[in-house]
Amino acid sequence: MDRNSVISARQVQGLIADGHTIVIYNGHVLQLDSWLHKHPGGLLPIAHMVGRDATNEINAYHLPKTQRLMKAYRIAKVKLPWTNLTPPIRSNDCCVRGEWQEEKTVAPTDDDDSDWSSSTLPTSTELVSEKVPEVLTTAFDNDTDKGTCVPIVGSERISGIKDEEQGSICEVACTLRKRPSRTEYIASLEQDEIDSDMLDYPSLDFETQEAISKEYGALHERIKKEGFYQCRYSEYGKDAIRWGILFSGFLGFLYAEWYITSAVFLGMFWQQIMFVAHDAGHRGITGNFVADTLIGAFVADFCCGLSIGWWKSSHNVHHLITNMPEHDPDLQNVPIFSTSPSYFRSLLSSFYNFTFVWDAAADVMVRYQKWTYYPVMALARFNLYFLSWCHLMSPRSKNLGSAAWTRPVEIAMMACYWALFGYGLVWRTLPDWPTRVAFVLTSHIATMLLHVQITLSHWGMPTADLGPSESFPQRQLRTTMDIDCPPWLDFLHGGLQFQAIHHLFPRVPRHNLRGVQGLVRVFCEKTQIKYRCYGFVEGNHVMLSRLEEVTKMAETLLKCQLHMAKTGDSGLH
């Protein structure tokens, strides 16, 4: 195939159906089959770009030197503008085994703008009226004579009905009204969220999203020209003073046998220094892959006992498909937490190759997620240890192509961490078991702010998938919030308070994100995309409100199921 020939969308679809890894970049068709298993970032980030114009994503995540390497994989050109396809990994029947495997799909017709379409199921506002008689007498299903339950959406109240009567409405509706199945009801909740986002954000028509992408490209160029990609090493000098004070406090109080106070200083040291690992993981310090990887491994693996490889593996995917329940590992916390009604139907995670089953445990634990959030965040570090070792023992850590050398380096550094912390400090230095337990718990709880900050910017935001026509910048801003704080508190949040800006420009060093904020605000005004920025307290309220909203949805579904079980007709199945 001639690299300069222009091929049609149907031909691209045919190549993908034949199992080729095809990505569009700057109007060129890239066939990445031979690069797939060499990619230092793993297979999944590429898998989520198959059939899409990934120009914005490639430019955002890769240095100019890496972008120039893309020329070697060109096989043809396409006519621009390009209409995105749904990657095979996101198809409903795609099955993942260990690492991503492409599924052959039937190509849509040339007349289709995309192979995604909105569900035609009724929304919850159509299913639920403000008056009880209308709830009981509308939207009958002509395909069956058997009445089934229409649950009331948990976040909605029916006007004119007393609070104590709200619960019984579901029972009446279950008995007298025809309704979709459990799966269709969950789909209606998902459709509600899609409809809400469609109203709150710019249109998904091609012209609007293309204009947004062009504005984003112009902003990206301006950020490069104004030097925001240049790391300010002097800021790390200031940070180093803070790290030194915290680590010295840990050692000093340990020597004085003020063990709990020492543990607090150690936890604060961990919390502060992990921001460096985040910078290094995005190649935001030196820009050199080897150097930044070694910095990240020293900080994360050696100093904190956490795998930088695991973090990069999940974080790369999280950045590309933010807040997609089936694909974003940062949202996949069932049965402890659920931030989307999509989990009610049990989801196969394309990242973990594991089905998050909605069962009785989820019914119970999600009911209290608003109250368990902070206690779980206080102990979240223990889960990160587990995930780190799982990653290093998995095939995923071996399948990194040119970055395969990182696995033995990480194992060695994490072994050093446990030798120093686990054996040298906890076992040999601390005098007895009560002190050891108290020290470990206190030091780990002291890192709690880091875990809250990580989840805060996404868990309260939309999880609806608006389809492949949504542009990269709009999705990042729609699914991410920023946290407002005075400049003198920036060190406490470590740049993670600028998550929306960071998601737009992940390689911009964190010390420059505040400077980029003003430019992003102007961009949002031009494109009419909402820029959500809340104070820390307000942001927590938004996130907790979302957890409560999903809890009510789950409770409504459970009540209806229990009622139908008592009447002898499950109704929801």
Poorly predicted runs of 5 or more residues: 94-178
Shape category: globular
Q: Rounded to an integer, what's the Rg over CA atoms?
A: 25 Å
- Helix percent reads 40-55%
DSSP strand tally: 8
Number of helices: 25
In angstroms, what separates the terminal alpha carbons?
51 Å
Major beta sheet, specifics? 4 strands, mixed
Tell me what portion of residues adopts beta-strand conformation. under 5%
Total discrete domains: 3
Structural class: mainly alpha
What is the topology, as strand order, of the major beta sheet? 1-4-3-2
Chain-averaged pLDDT: 84
Secondary structure topology:
Blueprint (H helix, E strand, L loop, with lengths): L5 E2 L1 H9 L4 E4 L2 E4 L12 H4 L7 H7 L2 H6 L4 E5 L45 H4 L4 H6 L25 H14 L5 H19 L5 H20 L7 H23 L3 H23 L7 H16 L3 H13 L26 E3 L4 E3 L3 H8 L1 H10 L1 H13 L2 H4 L7 H22 L5 H13 L2 H12 L12 H7 L3 E3 L5 H4 L5 H6 L8 H15 L5 E3 H31 L7
Parallel strand pairs: 1-4, 7-8
Antiparallel strand pairs: 2-3, 3-4, 5-6
Helix pairs in contact: 7-25, 9-24, 10-11, 11-12, 11-19, 12-18, 13-16, 20-25
Enzyme class: oxidoreductase
Keywords: Heme, Iron, Lipid metabolism, Membrane, Metal-binding, Oxidoreductase, Sphingolipid metabolism, Transmembrane, Transmembrane helix
Organism: Eremomyces bilateralis CBS 781.70
